[in-house]
Specification:
FA58C; Galactose-bd-like_sf; signal; 10 strands; binds 2-acetamido-2-deoxy-beta-D-glucopyranose
Length: about 240
Amino acid sequence: MKPHLFSRYVALWILSHEIHCALKVSAQVCNVFLVSGEYGVPNGSLTASSSLAPGHAPMYGRLNTSFVQGEHFGGWAPQSASNQFIQVQLNGLSSIQGVATQGRNVTNESQDEQFFFRVTKYEVAYSLDGLSWSTVMNPNMTAKAFQGNTDQNSIHVNWFPCIFEARYVRIHPTEWNIFPTLRFDIIGCPAFAANDSSDCGFENGICGWNQRNENETAVWKTLNGSNASSGQLPYRGHTCTNGK
Ligand SMILES: *[C@@H]1O[C@H](CO)[C@@H](O)[C@H](O)[C@H]1NC(C)=O
Ligand SMILES: *[C@@H]1O[C@H](CO)[C@@H](O)[C@H](O)[C@H]1NC(C)=O
Ligand SMILES: *[C@@H]1O[C@H](CO)[C@@H](O)[C@H](O)[C@H]1NC(C)=O
Ligand SMILES: *[C@@H]1O[C@H](CO)[C@@H](O)[C@H](O)[C@H]1NC(C)=O
Ligand SMILES: *[C@@H]1O[C@H](CO)[C@@H](O)[C@H](O)[C@H]1NC(C)=O
Ligand SMILES: *[C@@H]1O[C@H](CO)[C@@H](O)[C@H](O)[C@H]1NC(C)=O
Ligand SMILES: *[C@@H]1O[C@H](CO)[C@@H](O)[C@H](O)[C@H]1NC(C)=O
Ligand SMILES: *[C@@H]1O[C@H](CO)[C@@H](O)[C@H](O)[C@H]1NC(C)=O
Ligand SMILES: *[C@H]1O[C@@H](CO)[C@H](O)[C@@H](O)[C@@H]1NC(C)=O
């Protein structure tokens, strides 16, 4: 497990050098969408327990999908309402820290509330192998109920209580308006560049400092070795299991 550190700015102070001062740095960005966009998955990586119609297939469950008349219905919807899920196979082992959802996108011609399908509560499960699944839990070990959408098109983001390493993620709707229909994305760090078993060093991106818990203090040093600043780092989470 790799502890993560979230920050907008990163400063590196050179402590010493040999001959020339040379440094190679890359930073890993951990707030990108992992289902659609630059780091997104192919359509074949989106699956579901069932689909109401070809026009409600999992690939129409991508965030920001717009209804296209005669082509699809603006969101993934299962065949029946209960005990269903949409699943994404991420492009590799990824650190995930949140989920974004929207309701079904309905056309301007059908601004009728009977079509306002959306998910109002859901649960999240994640897996390393697609076979063995863990549910994101509350500290009291009940499944965490995430807040869904209150309208059709606003993006609602839920941040996890901590960060999970996952290759597969499932969204299980538990409450909905009319029918469980959604568009979603997963927020996290894209798959590790080198390979899954490699650690995250400078070559692969700064994706972990040895800050083991939220109370650890970071000290940045100046060239002459004095402490430039110290204090609590911006801390957004830690890898964990069972909601802790
Ligand atoms: C969805 O749309 C929002 C608002 O336009 C944008 O910020 C975001 O990057 C888009 N995300 C995806 C995955 O398309
Ligand atoms: C998914 O399929 C749709 C419809 O065929 C297509 O427009 C879109 O480009 C595909 N997306 C990806 C990421 O392949
Ligand atoms: C719906 O949107 C289309 C495309 O923007 C437009 O041509 C049409 O007039 C709109 N219909 C209504 C009822 O607003
Ligand atoms: C467990 O924690 C959740 C979230 O705080 C709470 O809503 C729920 O009522 C708790 N359940 C039990 C059995 O304590
Ligand atoms: C992945 O990394 C490990 C450890 O560095 C290495 O032994 C292995 O060959 C790599 N696998 C691939 C496919 O690059
Ligand atoms: C961090 O400090 C707070 C306040 O002293 C404490 O409640 C919490 O348990 C500490 N967390 C860890 C991981 O030590
Ligand atoms: C070390 O460098 C810092 C920043 O450049 C400076 O403020 C400080 O006075 C220096 N301390 C010593 C002991 O030279
Ligand atoms: C710099 O910070 C470290 C860690 O907190 C501390 O041990 C050390 O005494 C500090 N050095 C100075 C010169 O303040
Ligand atoms: C799709 O629905 C229309 C009509 O409500 C909105 O105007 C669009 O903004 C919306 N598009 C997306 C991507 O959600």
